[in-house]
């Protein structure tokens, strides 16, 4: 048995299966309902039940205390009939609450000579609601912050994935590589940033990553695959040498699985036996897509790469409203440094 949920004023309709919570079904069907802890405690998911019946088989209803009888915790509520909910759906990054939370380093994995993958676990009663492509900041003991792009998509939020490149002389990345071990407790703030997918566009898409700028691109692409976008998508990953393609097998798997996706690695300082593309990554894009004015372009990487791409693409007629970028510095200890 299943039930239909209608939202007001958004006028979205989605199906909830028997014994499934409203929020779980909404996330699976790409309906952006607000939420926080997903444990019935914070009340961030509260909606107004305009019609229908719900039950709370989990018994986790602490956030209902003091709320009107029509309040509905979508993270725990299981429908007993078709429902109408009044709820403020999220439509942009600006509508998501920035939160400060503790987290535990669940996994640290070396991906190549200078990149590690971190997976962070939030407390049981907490979740970080974010959009694909956003970033978070670590809050250091002295109040300084270090920003890292989130590398996973929102539908897979049990752990938060980050890709960290070692910055020689960088105090924080030195600590992450050599001192901070799994089970360590860290503090984060997020989500931040507006480098997010324009889902309603009908244009083909080009994704350009420089180095560990692949992290937010990975999140964007996994989200696009998850929601079933069928527009043509091409990912160019520019690095110096072959060993800098620290997850090369992943976009290769995507290309084998998704007919509308293509992957082009580009090396600026390749070995003699490199069989692929050579040179600067934005130049490879221009060679393949002289009609780039018809595309949506997402760029993530060092400012010099983003600025070169922006200037070249704009010269060919690509409007600024179809170029989206996330530029960051690999600075040692600048308060504004991005170390994704």
Task: State the order of secondary-structure elements, H for helix, E for strand.
Answer: EEHEEEEEEEEEEHEEHEHEEHEHE
Would you tell me the overall average pLDDT? 91
CATH architecture of the largest domain: 3-Layer(aba) Sandwich
Corresponding CATH superfamily of the largest domain: Nucleotide-binding domain of ferredoxin-NADP reductase (FNR) module
Major β-sheet annotation: 6 strands, antiparallel
**Helix coverage percent:** 10-25%
Terminal residue distance: 45 Å
Tally of distinct domains: 3
CATH topology of the largest domain: Rossmann fold
Order of adjacent strands in the largest pleated sheet: 11-10-13-8-9-12
In DSSP terms (H or I, runs of 4 or more residues), the helix count works out at 6
CATH class of the largest domain, named Alpha Beta
Question: Tell me, what's the shape?
Answer: globular
Radius of gyration: 22 Å
Structural class: alpha/beta
Q: Could you tell me the strand content as a percent range?
A: 25-35%
Number of strands: 19
Low-confidence stretches: 330-337
Question: Which short descriptors sum up this protein?
Answer:
340 residues, alpha/beta, Ubiquitin-like (UB roll), Elongation Factor Tu (Ef-tu), domain 3, Rossmann fold, 3 domains, six-stranded antiparallel sheet, six-stranded parallel sheet
Describe what you observe in this structure.
- By secondary structure, the protein is of the alpha/beta class.
- The protein has 3 domains: 2-91, Roll (Ubiquitin-like (UB roll)), CATH 3.10.20; 94-192, Translation factors (Elongation Factor Tu (Ef-tu), domain 3, Beta Barrel); 205-327, Nucleotide-binding domain of ferredoxin-NADP reductase (FNR) module (Rossmann fold, 3-Layer(aba) Sandwich).
- It contains 6 helices and 19 strands.
- The strands form 4 sheets. It has a 6-stranded antiparallel β-sheet with strand order 11-10-13-8-9-12, covered by helices on one side. Strands 17-16-15-14-18-19 form a 6-stranded parallel β-sheet, sandwiched between helices.
- The model is unreliable at 330-337 (pLDDT under 50).
